[in-house]
Amino acid sequence: MPRIAITVDGIKHEEDVEPRLLLVHLLRDRLGRTGTPVGCDTTNCGACTVMLDGRSVKSCSVLAVQADGCDVVTIEGLGANGSLHPMQQAFHEEHALQCGYCTPGMVMAAIDLLRDDPDPSEETIRRGLEGNLCRCTGYCNIVRAVRRGAQEMGQAVRTP
Amino acid sequence: MTELDAGLVGEQIAESGQISEPDGAREIGRARRRKEDRRLLTGHTRWTDNLQQPGMLHVMFVRSPMAHARITRVDVSAARDLPGVVAAFSGRDFADEQGSLPCAWPVSEDIVIPDHPPMAVSQVRYVGEAVACVIATDRYRAADALEAVEVDYEPLPAVMDMNEALAPDSPKVHEAGNKAFSVTITSGDVEAALRDAPVVIDRTYVQQRLIPSAMEPRAVLASTDGDTFTLWSSTQIPHVLRVMLAVTTGIPEHRLRVIAPDVGGGFGSKLQVTAEEVLCLLLTRRLGVPVKWTESRSEGNLTVHHGRDQIQHLTLAAEADGRIRGLRVRLLADMGAYLMLVTPGIPMLGASMFNGIYKMDAYEFGCTGVFTTKMPTDAYRGAGRPEATFAIERIMDELAAELKMDPVEVRRRNWIGHEEFPYTTVSGLTYDSGNYEAATDRALALFGYDKLRAEQADRRDRRDPVQLGIGVSTYTEMCGLAPSRMLGMANYGAGGWEHGSVRMLPTGKVEVITGTSPHGQGHVTAWSQIVADSLGVPFDDVTVLHGDTAIAHKGMDTYGSRSLVIGGVAVLQACEKVKAKARKLAAHLLECSPDDLEFDGGAFTVRGTGSAKTIQELAFAAFTAHDLPEGVEARLDSDATFDPDNYSFPHGTHLCAVEVDTETGQARIRSYVAVDDVGRVVNPLIVRGQVHGGIAQGIAQALFEEAVYDADGNLLTTTMADYLLPSAADLPDFTTDRTETPSTGNPLGVKGVGEAGTIASTPAVVNAVVDALRPYGIDDIRMPCTPERIWRALEGARS
């Protein structure tokens, strides 16, 4: 079995893994990072989105061996010292979650979206989140939350 | 509370994004951010699949690839020999103990309720039906073992079409035939209404089959210590499930605990007693170790009960001025292969709703439930009411078109006036309250109705390839399921009450226990607001427990827009009882009569003096019990069970503008306005979220979603790539507002909001699509109104 080295939410792990093991199952079943859920088996829903070396990936379509040597950030590693990341806070303020199952992936995808466009329009946000499905909110409040999160994060960048 | 004054709330969200706060210290009406959020936002979740138990094994099911077949052989021996595999069983291995999955709603005397083994023993009747299971040390080994199970089938003919299924020469799904039941309800003389009517509109509408698609796939974990059993399930109904599992498996109810931990959406799909829940319980009993099953999405699309699937034939008779004389409804409702928990009751929930908000003298409803070789249908958001609302709202537009009348005007001429409530409709329901005029006027203003009509006329004149359609839906629905007395009359197998407990803890904090079982609705926040107002305690000092039969010992769970209307009221009534106890204690400690005390701001004050005891002080006094009056126990807590006298009837007006590209057939929603009246609102933020999500699901039925089976009974939409859940890119922003006409049926004045958006939006969208195409002589597009269907209709009209 291949041995991989992987950093997850700041903790280094070395794991022997079957080549077929999916990253999301490594996170959930082996490393106990159950904050990242699985919503489908065809890479459509985006619930399992995490950051892999700083870019969002659907962890159900990455093999654990492909993440060898990589740095993974999940929803559990996003906020610093128990505080919420501005995007998490924005989702709270705008009531952008109901059942919360899509939320970890949605937050991750939203943060990644802002790397390409720190001040996205509604249209850009809707297109940017096309790969993340939500069944509860109708997306209106998610769009508002991403706008709000973008403003907060922009402010944070501008304020030294 | 009887003042039926529809106050405009004025939260025009699309413009400001803000909801105004009510004045003063009252919690009810405040847009409190949810207490539930933090855990969900940081990944500290308790989805059933997250849970681990020492020694836990993983279950997977071998599922039938045939829609209809005899099982001639099942061989699990090769699977048993694989590494990591602990056991493998066929249906026959559990034939003596698995019982039959329950149907709790026999809607007629002569209903056929077929035996429904959780694991098929001798015959399969839909693709996806479980025929065997494997149990292994992890999910990968279990998946390997599935491949090694051999099953031989002798194919039988698939039965896919409801009309064909009812033909005398049709192959039979069950021995007793393909008709599950027939029910007819009449009120007034429909024949007379139809005879010589100046206008008769006759239409057939198809409610396509839908897949509910909660984001969290189902999961079940069962464990036993040899004496007691615990079942964790992604369910909406832990309490109902416990009773049903006890009856089905023979495990005594008092030795079975059911827990619904975090549940990731339901929409009715988790209002069920499933084969997997029964089998996980039986497997843990047989193997003595914890077992967990988590479905894949593809497995879920096949085997989570489906929704809708009706053929609706309506005949509407009207006067020349548009006033309705009467309505006849004939339904065929696809039950699928078996009757599950409330399968036959779903079309019956719409039986009294086809008349909508309109006055008429004659009504006839007939429904036949039909067996086919497909996944059973059951509750899906709205459950019977969206189907009824769609049909009446669609045919009202056809009536308007026939009379060359504005569709809003034809509705005005027929709807119940605000001064006429409470109003007993032709189908026998008594609508509690409403103000259709106010909601419609507000919606028309927000929408810019006249301006859009002018633009539409202009585009029609110019023969613009992109045509504009405007759709109206003035809906009502039946919420707060349900008065137990009425459920009894409908032959439903349970009551409709709800339970709440409130206990003051020694330190003055409040623990609330609710029998409802939230899965995204925000009960913890809303119930905290109700309690904070009633007891005068801080919002943050209230906690709400739910979803575990060992904690919330009594409940009827969450579905049918019932939780606030019944469960919220039960919590309020428990608070009132707590206050009554506290008053006795305060009077004793303050040495006055209970009648001399006034309660305000969380304290009992002796009228005209400054002497007071706070509810927190009284909680501590009850805890220490050093000085209690005669007959007062050492506790400040109480229970209440609320059972309403009537349903509640929210309503509203939804308007949709759709642009239809007549060259490509693409329909795009340009604007959407919803003005809903859900009675008094506890938390406007939560209400708005429910409306948004509901609208999106209704639009999804109108434009995107359909569960498609081929002629052999194979489901073609097993993945989210094939079954089109709308993404953010597929939907517009919604403009929402409210009017507020309190319900007269409960002390909170609330009506329920969980299903309203879904019920209202489907006809609004399809009416808009058809309105755009009417100049081409098109008067219907079957749902979902895909570009292909619209394009084909246009091609047909052109040739």
Automatic annotation (TrEMBL), chain A:
Residues 2-78 form the 2Fe-2S ferredoxin-type domain. It comes from the Bacteria. It holds the Pfam family Fer2. InterPro entries: 2Fe-2S-bd, 2Fe-2S-bd_dom_sf, 2Fe-2S_ferredoxin-like_sf, 2Fe-2S_ferredoxin-type, Beta-grasp_dom_sf, Diverse_Oxidoreductases. SUPFAM superfamilies: 2Fe-2S ferredoxin-like (SSF54292), CO dehydrogenase ISP C-domain like (SSF47741). Keywords: 2Fe-2S, Iron, Iron-sulfur, Metal-binding, Oxidoreductase. This is (2Fe-2S)-binding protein.
